[in-house]
C-alpha cells in the first residue's frame, strides 16, 4: 500500500490518498479524500492509518510505503514522533500486530500517482475508495 498526505498551508486543508498494488504491480484498490485541517505531517500519518484500516479486512501480508521519511520512521519506531500525533501513531502501530506488515520509504518522484490522489482528495466531500481511479485522477494520468 502506497500512501500520501498533503496540506494546503501548514496547517491547512488536508487530504489523503493511497494505492494498493498486487505483487505484479497492478492496482487493486485506491482511496482519496479530504481530512479536515491538519499539518502535512499529520496528513501523512492519517493517510497511512486510513490505508491500514482499509487493508485489515482483506489483507494479512502487505508492505506500506510512503514518501515521508519521518512518517515511516515514526510508524516503525515505538515511542517516536510528535506527542500531538501519539494517538494516531499508537493506533497505526497496534493494527499491524495482527498483520504481517513491512514498512518502507519511497521517493516522492516514484509516488506521483498517490500524490495526485491525495491532492484530488481536497475537492471531495467524502472518502473515495474503489478498485479503479476516480475520473478526475484518471484524466490527469492521461496527460
Automatic annotation (TrEMBL):
One Pfam family cited in the UniProt record for this chain: RVT_3
Family annotation (InterPro entries): RNase_H-like, RNase_H-like_dom_plant, RNaseH-like_sf, RNaseH_domain, RNaseH_sf
Domain RNase H type-1: 1-123
SUPFAM superfamilies (alphabetical): Ribonuclease H-like (SSF53098)
Taxonomic superkingdom: Eukaryota
Molecular functions per Gene Ontology: nucleic acid binding; RNA-DNA hybrid ribonuclease activity
PANTHER family found in the cross-reference section: OS05G0353850 PROTEIN, POLYNUCLEOTIDYL TRANSFERASE, RIBONUCLEASE H-LIKE SUPERFAMILY PROTEIN
The protein, known as: Uncharacterized protein LOC109113959
Organism: Nelumbo nucifera (Sacred lotus)
Amino acid at each position: 500500500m502506497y500512501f500520501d498526505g498533503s496540506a494546503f498551508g501548514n496547517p491547512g486543508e488536508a487530504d489523503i490518498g493511497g494505492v494498493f498494488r498486487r505483487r505484479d504491480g497492478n492496482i487493486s484498490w485506491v482511496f482519496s479524500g479530504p481530512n479536515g485541517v491538519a499539518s502535512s505531517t499529520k496528513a501523512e500519518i492519517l493517510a497511512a492509518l486510513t490505508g491500514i484500516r482499509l487493508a485489515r479486512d482483506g489483507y494479512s501480508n502487505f508492505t506500506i510505503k510512503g514518501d515521508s521519511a519521518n512518517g515511516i520512521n515514526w510508524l516503525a519506531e515505538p515511542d517516536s514522533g510528535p506527542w500531538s500525533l501519539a494517538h494516531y501513531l499508537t493506533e497505526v502501530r497496534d493494527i499491524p500486530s495482527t498483520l504481517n506488515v513491512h514498512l518502507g520509504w519511497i521517493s516522492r518522484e516514484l509516488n506521483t500517482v498517490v500524490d495526485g490522489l491525495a491532492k484530488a482528495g481536497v475537492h471531495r466531500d467524502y472518502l473515495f475508495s474503489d478498485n479503479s481511479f476516480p475520473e478526475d485522477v484518471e484524466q490527469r494520468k492521461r496527460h
